[in-house]
Amino acid sequence: MSFPAHRPRRLRRTLAIRRMVAETRLSPDNLVLPLFVHTLPGPAPVSAMPGVFRWPIDQVATQAREARDLGIRAVILFGIPAHKDAEGTSAYVSDGIVQEAIRRLKDSNPDLVVIADTCLDEYTDHGHCGILRDGEVDNDATLEVLARVALSQAEAGADFVAPSDMMDGRVGRIRSALDESGLDRVGIMAYAAKYASAFYGPFREAAGSAPQFGDRRSYQMDPANGREALKEARLDLEEGADVLMVKPALAYLDIISAFRDEFDVPIAAYNVSGEYSMVKAAAANGWIDETQVMMEILTSIRRAGADLILSYHAVDAARGMA
């Protein structure tokens, strides 16, 4: 017998063979495109996220349609309102920025899956994800407002609401509000493990949502904790979540993998703004091949177990797969 007896390289010899035996498949069906919507008349570039824009309501449908033509079947909406206050009231008015964007998307792209981010940080003048009492975020008071936000988004036509606040009990409160209003068809994509991460910096520029004091470590998760993420996910499932999300993705592949092993529901992962901007910055300096690194990152998130990947790379990645 010649040495070596086993030659795994046979299965790597050509591109056709490598594709034939690939263990992980990534397609546009796995991608969700985040869209920022604002009240100004034209698109506004986000300086920290090259290629990403805040879109006026009348252009959101066009962006979604272009993504849909590439095979991307879902978008998630983030609103930048004209008015902010301490209670985040613009988040749940019937003619709010996201509510109107949902209606237009559904009118023009009825088969598009529309997900609404359900949180208050973009709508409060203090930038926190809840209602403040004596300088602290009041968990239970926030639940009532989040239920109103989710209900207004569902009534506008959202297929999923996505609570991203990390308040205790918010999935159950939202599920009850939806069911009691006859909106039991609307799903909940829960940010089950949202970490207090430094990777969110560019998003806060895009959404104008940086906290005006303190930080979010009292409600978002400690990056040191993994077992706690499983506890959070179990609670969300018990309360009625349909999809579980891990955010961020790249530094938390172990959490995505643990979710995949533990739970028999769709798993989503958010390839967040800081992860996107690092790739863009390194590519702009000629240090990396942007396309190859982008696809490697997205494939790694999929390989870890994510069924859905929310990513600002979505359109470029879908074009690369075409």
Could you describe the 3D structure shown?
By secondary structure, this protein is α/β, with parallel strands linked by helices. It has one domain (25-321): TIM Barrel (Alpha-Beta Barrel). It is built from eleven helices and twelve strands. The protein has helices at residues 15-20, 57-69, 97-108, 139-156, 170-180, 201-207, 227-239, 253-262, 273-284, 290-304, 314-321, and strands at residues 31-38, 44-45, 53-56, 74-80, 113-118, 131-133, 136-138, 160-163, 187-194, 243-247, 267-271, 308-311. The strands form two sheets. It has an eight-stranded parallel β-barrel with strand order 1-4-5-8-9-10-11-12, surrounded by nine helices. A two-stranded antiparallel ribbon has the order 6-7. Strand 4, helix 3 (97-108) and strand 5 (113-118) form a beta-alpha-beta unit. Helix 4 crosses helix 5. It starts with 14 loop residues before the first helix and ends with a helix. The mean pLDDT is 94.
Determine the mean pLDDT: 94
Q: What is the CATH domain class?
A: Alpha Beta
* CATH architecture term: Alpha-Beta Barrel
Number of strands: 12
- How much of the sequence lies in strands comes to 15-25%
So how many helices? 11
Terminal CA distance reads: 44 Å
Within the largest sheet, what's the order of strands? 1-4-5-8-9-10-11-12
Q: H/E element string?
A: HEEEHEHEEEHEHEHHEHEHHEH
Globular, elongated, flat, extended or rod-shaped: what is the shape?
A: globular
In the CATH scheme, what's the topology name?
TIM Barrel
Brief descriptors of the model:
8-stranded parallel beta barrel; globular; 11 helices; two-stranded antiparallel ribbon; 322 residues; TIM Barrel; alpha/beta
